Structure formats: structure tokens, C-alpha cells
Amino acid sequence: MSRHWGALLGLLWVQVCWVRGLDVEQSPSALSLQEGAGAALKCNFSQAVNSVQWFRQNPGGGGLTRLISVASGLKQSGRLNCTLNTRERSSTLHIADSQLEDAASYLCAAEAQCCLLIRGLQATCSCACAPAPPPGGPAQQPHQQAWAIWDSAGLQGRWQ
């Protein structure tokens, strides 16, 4: 009897802890700058996140390039610096001394909180991506959002 209750409680725990989805809101929706000016792109999340990665996609499409990732606080890489404020559930990508080649679509991807593995069941983390505007001009689709799933195979996603 106690074994039966243990299995039932384990299933209930998985259902309570399962991450349902993560909404991401970006701002500003479009941005135009003078060359040499700084840019700040921000993503707000609907729930707590473990880490954030920022990507860029060059005009005309193509693959995504990972720029920077941060698990907490501040991380700097060249002219880029990225903050993750877990209390405010937000991340900001700062681009210093913007150059013409910085014109692109920028996306943030966040890894949401996950539960521990329970009785061998593998929990899946949910991620969401939102394109940020390019520093040199408006994004082609500024309100486009992507949802993705982090699993043991890596990042998989689909555009909505």
C-alpha cells in the first residue's frame, strides 16, 4: 500500500513541478541608432530563470550566432555586456560603441527553473526566445516569438 502512495505522490510532484512555458517580452520593439552610440536590449520573463543566452541573426536570415550567456549578475565580452536580474526576472544586453555590422536581429533565450529528477523520470526545462531589434534599424518581424525546449539533446524550437 505504501509503495502505491509513493508512486502516486511522485506523479503528483512531477505535475506540480513541470514547467508549462515561459513568456518573454522584449523592449524596445525596434531601435535605430547613430553609429558609435550604445544600445540596450531587454527581455522580461514571466517566471524565474536559471540562465540567459543572447543570439544574433544577420539580415536576410541564416543561422543564429550565440553572443553571450550569463547565469547570474553581469558578464562582459568585448563591446557586449549582459546582465541577468533574477529578482526582476529580466536580462539586458548592452552593446557599446555600435557599428554598422551590429545591424541584425537579436534574440534572448532563457532556461527556466526545473525540478529534480524524480524516480528516474527526466524533467524537461522550458525555454522561450524573443527577437530583439537590431541596433541599426527595426527588425523585419519585431513581434515574432519563438518557443524552445531544453532537453538532453540541446535546444530544439519552433517559430510561432
Automatic annotation (TrEMBL):
Where, per UniProt, does this protein localize?
A: Cell membrane
Q: Where is the Ig-like domain?
A: 22-111
> What superkingdom does the record give?
Eukaryota
Entry keywords, A to Z: Adaptive immunity, Cell membrane, Disulfide bond, Glycoprotein, Immunity, Membrane, Signal, T cell receptor
Provide GO CC annotations from the record: T cell receptor complex
Reply yes or no: does the keyword RNA-binding apply: no
Name the major location.
Answer: membrane
Signal peptide span per the entry? 1-21
The cross-references to InterPro entries, in alphabetical order and at most eight, read:
Ig-like_dom, Ig-like_dom_sf, Ig-like_fold, Ig_sub, Ig_V-set, TCR_alpha_variable
Quaternary organization: Alpha-beta TR is a heterodimer composed of an alpha and beta chain; disulfide-linked. The alpha-beta TR is associated with the transmembrane signaling CD3 coreceptor proteins to form the TR-CD3 (TcR or TCR). The assembly of alpha-beta TR heterodimers with CD3 occurs in the endoplasmic reticulum where a single alpha-beta TR heterodimer associates with one CD3D-CD3E heterodimer, one CD3G-CD3E heterodimer and one CD247 homodimer forming a stable octameric structure. CD3D-CD3E and CD3G-CD3E heterodimers preferentially associate with TR alpha and TR beta chains, respectively.
Instruction: State the PANTHER family in the record.
Output: IG-LIKE DOMAIN-CONTAINING PROTEIN, T CELL RECEPTOR ALPHA VARIABLE 39
In its UniProt entry, what is this protein called?
A: Ig-like domain-containing protein
What's the source species for this entry?
A: Ailuropoda melanoleuca (Giant panda)
